[in-house]
Specification:
Leucine Aminopeptidase, subunit E, domain 1, seven-stranded mixed β-sheet, cytoplasm, metal-binding, Aminopeptidase, EC 3.4.11.10, 15 helices, alpha/beta, single chain, about 525 residues, manganese ion binding, metalloaminopeptidase activity, 2 domains
């Protein structure tokens, strides 16, 4: 069961007269000395005009006295005391006023998420944030709606007693627009609800304890969700994997009493020109195997299936949005444990495409299961292949915890970067140097899964170079390393909760939309 998201609707009633529990307005920071004639250093954003009028010009000064600065994502709440219909007004910071334009969509998305999270306990919240009146309006409405739904997310958890002071998430969100009956705005709200539900499903799977989501259970959950969405579903158990020659998936799963799986989900519209393959890493828990990880922080390895969760949830959204492109997801699932039956450093594994891999580090297990899944995707045929995984700690070292690393066909990597910028999931293209590949030459097999001398230089790039070995030459592909962005171990911020983030579900959906419209 996915964590519930608020209901979402549009409204064009005067914000000051909305019968809601709270209303959110935007506020900009100012470098000047005055605003609205009250001596404050704030500027209320468009959308708040009737509320400013109801407060007789005293609103910005009061917000400033309460500590509001207009900093992005800052939320300041004020009791209205009957001045307007809503009992609470919340001013969310949007940063400096943009010159000649509304705030960027990502600013609105983060502000919307932060305000809805801050208003937990309220039943219904209205958002009256600045929206452009030109061709940029749909993107702004989408951003506000998505941010609100994602900001309300809360994982149910496993506590046996109620937590004092813990307030329920906002139950309903209404977005103020100039015309609530306008078809484009209605379409954006509908899409936002589908996308947010997919992100919530991803977050739920990532946040689930690993003892409750071992490979067979995860495969069953993926298959059940796919069937319910109307997707074509195929599940390969350990016997089918052995018969099919999926040596990488089987090798990683050897150490666990919970055998591995490969799930294939397909969406085929009545008419289409392009075929997209999605591949996601599904390591339900990663001890590192015999190349065991340090104990500190190992518990976060429950999130090592974030790529699989993301591509599965993206497929659920595809089934609902019905783009004019065929999409198939390949979800390899295994648990990387250390036991008497586990695979070892020094093993040579024969992969699905026949290549033989020398195992030097059992903690480089993700690329083993992905190699098999990528090979299968290329066998089935596709025009584009996107793979995403929590593959390397090198991604975090190189790019931090918010920026994904992208490797593969240069043109497609640029496309991933553009899609990430559009939805607020930043990614940066990285090279696949030939000297990195040379360092993975093996004396006994076709390739080592890591540098043959165990040199960790360019560790993130080693992962991409290895995966390239399983992509056929005619398929444009992109590997998206989300080791950092897929999990937020810090405090909630913007529309990101603590724990699973749902990255890169929205990037994948943006890419599919782009391919459906432009090829």
């Amino acid at each position: 069961m996915t964590s519930p998201i608020p209901t979402l609707s549009l409204v064009d009633t005067d914000p000051a007269e909305l019968a809601v529990d709270a209303i959110v307005i935007g506020v900009h920071s100012l470098n000047g000395d005055v605003a609205d004639g009250d001596g404050g250093s704030l500027l209320l954003a468009s959308g708040a005009e009737s509320i400013v009028a109801a407060f007789d010009g005293r609103l910005t000064g009061t917000l400033a006295l309460l500590g509001a600065t207009g900093a992005p994502g800052e939320v300041t709440k004020l009791a209205t005391l009957g001045t307007i219909t809503a009992p609470v007004v919340a001013a969310v910071g949007l940063g400096p006023e943009p010159t000649g334009a509304a705030p960027p969509p990502e600013t609105l998305r983060r502000a919307s998420g932060a305000s809805i999270r801050a208003l937990a306990g309220a039943g219904t919240v209205a958002l009256s944030l600045p929206l452009p009146d030109d061709e940029d309006a749909p993107a702004a409405v989408r951003a506000v709606a998505e941010g609100a739904l994602l900001g309300a997310y809360r994982f149910a958890g496993y506590k046996t007693k109620p937590q004092p002071g813990r307030r329920a998430p906002v139950g309903a969100v209404v977005v103020h627009v100039p015309d609530a009956a306008e078809a484009t705005a209605e379409a954006e709200v509908t899409r936002a609800a589908v996308v947010a539900q997919a992100v919530a499903q991803t977050r739920d799977w990532v946040n689930t304890p690993p003892n409750e989501l071992r490979p067979p259970a995860f495969a069953d959950a993926v298959a059940a969700a796919g069937r319910e969405a109307g997707l074509e579903v195929e599940v390969l158990d350990e016997d089918a994997l052995r018969e099919g020659g999926y040596g990488g998936i089987l090798a990683v799963g050897l150490g666990s009493s919970a055998p591995p799986r490969l799930v294939r989900l397909s969406y085929t519209p009545p008419e289409f020109d392009k075929r997209v393959a999605l591949v996601g890493k599904g390591i339900t828990f990663d001890t590192g195997g015999f190349s065991i990880k340090p104990a500190q922080g190992m518990w976060e390895m429950k999130s090592d299936m974030a790529g699989a969760a993301a591509v599965t949830a993206a497929m659920l959204a595809v089934a609902a949005l019905r783009p004019s492109v065929a999409v198939t997801a390949y979800v390899p699932i295994a648990e990387n444990m250390a036991s008497a039956t586990a695979y070892r450093p020094g093993d040579v594994v024969t992969m699905r495409n026949g290549k033989r891999v020398e195992v030097l580090n059992t903690d480089a297990e993700g690329r083993m299961i992905l190699g098999d899944a990528i090979a299968r995707a290329c066998e089935d045929g596709c025009d584009y292949l996107f793979e995403t995984s929590t593959l390397t700690g090198g991604q975090v070292v190189a790019l931090g915890k918010r920026m994904a690393g992208v490797m593969g066909t240069p043109e497609l990597c640029d496309r991933v970067k553009a899609a990430g910028e559009q939805v607020g999931e930043p990614a940066w293209p990285m090279p696949l140097p030939e000297d990195v590949r040379k360092g993975m030459d093996s004396d006994v097999a076709d390739i080592s899964q890591v540098n043959a001398a165990m040199d960790r230089a360019g560790h993130m790039l080693q992962g991409g170079v290895f995966l390239r070995e399983f992509v056929t030459d005619d398929v444009p592909w992109a590997h998206i390393d989300i080791a950092g962005p897929s999990y937020n171990s810090g405090e909630p911020t913007g529309y990101l909760a603590k724990g699973g983030t749902g990255v890169p579900v929205r990037t994948l959906l943006a890419l599919i939309d782009d391919i459906a419209s432009a090829g």
